[in-house]
Amino acid sequence: MKTNGTSTNPVDSALQAKQERFMNLLRPFHKRLERFALTMTRNREDAKDVVGETVLLAYEHLEQLRNDDAFLGFLFTIASRVSQRRTFRRREETATEEQVEALFDNFTQPDVALDVQFLYEALEKLPLEQREAVIMAEITGLSHKEIQKVQGGTISGVKVRIFRAKRRLAQLLGVEKKSVIATSQN
After folding, report:
1. Are the beta carbons of 165 and 158 closer than 8 angstroms?
2. 87 shares a domain with 13
3. pLDDT band at residue 8 using 50, 70 and 90 as cut-offs
4. Is residue 118 situated within a structural domain?
């Protein structure tokens, strides 16, 4: 039954309230979620799939979220698990040159694209928790506290994972130790 163009059905009202709540929670984190998915999958189509599946699962399980302040951890925990499941299903060794090129727009300089390709290859060699932590911190822009909500453990543990990941990346990329130490102190 409709009155003046508005629904009076309580089920429709509850559904609309859930949708509005979800969109208000998702909106501030959607771009970060996309960056995380793209970095983890290294493929735009796969990243779109990860984001879509993550959003769907987060919406379906929204009732399990007791505190809206915990939404970021809730969302990225789901994204991490979705990404891991997809990785286990599709064990691709390394990205092809075309896949790496697809990550960048047409204005990317070739030397920059090559550096980024080396970085992605080095990221793949890190243990999963370290790789996720450094991606969340450096590419997605999450704070240590936000990463801790996603990965669990302590904030000190998150800092250690990020530090070890950066140190290992520096070794894999042949960067001098002096620049790594200077970067970690900033």
Report:
1. no
2. yes
3. low
4. no
Q: Are 86 and 50 in contact (CB under 8 A)?
A: yes
pLDDT digits (tens, 9 = 90+) for 87-113: 766 654 455 666 556 655 445 566 666
Closest CA relative to residue 133, chosen from 120, 142, 121, 124: 142
Can you give the CATH number for the domain in which 151 is found? 1.10.10
Q: How far apart are the first and last CA of the chain?
A: 61
57 belongs to a structural domain: yes
Q: Is the pLDDT of residue 60 over 50?
A: yes
Cα separation, 9 vs 1, in Å, equals: 7
Tell me, yes or no, whether 180 and 139 share the same domain.
yes
Query: Given pLDDT bands bounded at 50, 70 and 90, which one contains residue 123?
Result: confident
Is 79 within the bounds of a domain? yes
